Amino acid sequence: MSAAPVVLDAMGGDHGPSEIVRGAVAAWRTHGVPVVLVGREREVREELERHDATEIPVVHADEAVPMSERGAPATAGASTSLAVGCELVRRGEGAAFVSAGSTGAVVSCAVRLIGRAEGVLRPALAVALPTLPGGSTVLVDAGATADPTPEMVAQFGVLGTTYARLVFGVPDPLVGLLSIGSEPDKGNRLIRGAGRLLHELPVRFHGNVEGHDVLAGRVDVIVTDGFTGNIVLKSVEGCVRTALSMTAAAGIAAPEDLAVVARRYDPETHGGAALLGLRGTLIVAHGSSGAATIARACQVARDLAGGRPRTTP
Amino acid sequence: MSAAPVVLDAMGGDHGPSEIVRGAVAAWRTHGVPVVLVGREREVREELERHDATEIPVVHADEAVPMSERGAPATAGASTSLAVGCELVRRGEGAAFVSAGSTGAVVSCAVRLIGRAEGVLRPALAVALPTLPGGSTVLVDAGATADPTPEMVAQFGVLGTTYARLVFGVPDPLVGLLSIGSEPDKGNRLIRGAGRLLHELPVRFHGNVEGHDVLAGRVDVIVTDGFTGNIVLKSVEGCVRTALSMTAAAGIAAPEDLAVVARRYDPETHGGAALLGLRGTLIVAHGSSGAATIARACQVARDLAGGRPRTTP
Q: Quaternary structure (chains A, B) (predicted)?
């Protein structure tokens, strides 16, 4: 096992510590990812004992940020598992932080405590989407910054390139800018401006891509603002569910068979969204994450933190 | 048959006049929609003769706007079928104009010749999407205005309400604003501003909806800016194709069975996008439209023009 461990928020998520601890055990034992759990020590240790995994270290934090604050940019108090975990990363005692807590709370706490990496204008959420040919495309920004400048959007291309290198193992990722036509003059002012800047940045810029390219696997990185990115991500998730439900309703295939396809687009499978551009790596897992997703998020965190490609199956 | 006819551009579309004329014949005979064809008279009459439908009137236009100008805001010359058709609507000799020509060319020509309705800040494209419960939701703006103001976006809610009344026959349509969270403070500046204004307009405003609501049938009208709307529309189309291709590739169902579901999301089925807010009704059909789509577009055009609900199957 390598250097600094991945710090895992034991108190985040809808299922409480039991599911997170199961994920930590899987990450540790199956994938060889060193982890540290942060949360109410007694509760967490009890869970670890169930799995006979008392070798996994625990750092105590008095409080949990309630999931009811989902969406609200809550200020996590210093004694919360969120703040204690981010603090460990800030001090270099953890390589990365993983939480299934409320996205708003996790992001605001991490930005405040871990801070931005030098030269980064604004952090961005990166989410890996499975594509038709079988690979993945990373969508960035998937919702961190609703009103970025063209400079910020262009820089998301650089952040996404790093992600595709480290997580997908693509040596020279191809970057597309999400717009409403393939020509460079197509788009709104923000995206046209970002397109001009992307030509000058150290990325392999393909030019514009459109909505129907999102799952087509034409590029490794799709760059967009956080408003559009969040809507596209949720539209895609909803749309796959709808298409499969319609297929089931039409009696064409059995719902349990269709679940195989649905699972590829489940937020579960993404392994969480990475907040790129901080001085330490942060992964926000979906609140409903089960153990397998938490374990996957820990792998992605380790890859991003250590610059060690790649764990993608 | 009622008052002014629907004017149909015989020269638009990828398949040339033969498919359009077949659509005109179907609209006329099967759905009782009065139509006038605009295009090179000899070619059009030859096609009409094939269907023994010489009773359909033809207005001559020397030229066709080539489909290669797709996307380019081409200025259609006065002798093109586009300009001649729009001119008929402007003079009140046609109730509506339907074209399967290049969207950019059709929209710019119609705005120039037909002009905006009084009080309308900016026209918007409306596209009807089939929803999971079985009804439809109209997405507006699906791509006419990439950089609207909050006032324009709010007004799209009024235009969409009229569409849902006339085309879907919903007496009091529910309007949702596409954003990145359900609370009114969620979104970018543009959408938050539009949300405040929507409360003051004569629409039944539900508040924000999110990406996963696009096909969920929670509202009758989804309001968005033309940049986001165009990307969402194309993402949804691409995504349904991808989910069904994955289902076929996994051997879960036969491609020909899945085609039933795919057809619901085919641009073919939408019956075209309506440009709302002009002094006359305009429907832009997809370039690849076959006869059935053209006929459906003529029905929608008649409904929107005549304020006569409803033809939706």
A: Homodimer. Probably interacts with PlsY.
Phi, psi angles (nearest 5°) of residue B247: -65, -45
Taking the alpha carbons of A79, A81, A82, A87 in that order, is the dihedral positive or negative? positive
The structural domain count of chain A equals 2
Whether A1 has a pLDDT exceeding 50, the answer reads: no
Looking from the CA of A118 toward its CB, the CA atoms found within 13 Å total 0
The per-residue b/e assignment along A221-240, b for 16 or more CB within 10 angstroms, e otherwise, is bbbbbbbbbbbbbbbbbbbb
Question: Do A141 and A211 belong together in one domain?
Answer: yes
Q: Which residues pair with A223 in a beta bridge?
A: A140, A177
**Are A151 and A80 members of one domain?**
no
Domain that holds residue A1: 1-115+278-313
Highest mean pLDDT: which of A77-86, A93-102, A221-230? Answer: A221-230
B-chain residues near A231 (CB < 8 A): 178-180, 210-211, 228, 231-232
Say if CB B108 and CB B74 are below 8 A apart.
Answer: yes
pLDDT in tens, B72-83: 445 678 889 999
Give percent helix, percent strand, percent coil of chain A, each to the nearest 5.
Answer: 45, 15, 40
CATH of the domain at A8: 3.40.718.10
User: How far is CA B219 from each of CA A150, A313, B205, B283, B300, rounded to the nearest angstrom?
Assistant: 33, 39, 9, 23, 20
* B129 lies in the same domain as B110: no
Tell me if A212 and B178 make a contact (CB, 8 A cut-off): no
Residue A311 is encoded by which pair of tokens? 């764990």
Residue A300 clears pLDDT 50, i.e. is over it: yes
Instruction: Say which of A183, A189, A261 has its CB closest to residue B243.
Output: A261
Q: How many CA atoms lie within 13 A of B93 on its CB side?
A: 13
pLDDT of residue A306 exceeding 90, the answer is no
The CA-atom distances, in angstroms, between A101 and each of A14, A76, A300, B230, B281 are: 8, 11, 17, 32, 49
Of all helices (H) and strands (E), which one includes residue B187?
none
**Does the beta carbon of A29 lie under 8 angstroms from any beta carbon of chain B?**
no
Contact list, A227 vs chain B (CB under 8 Å): 179-180, 187-188, 191, 228
Reported ipTM: the value is 0.88
Same-domain pairing of B80 and B100: yes
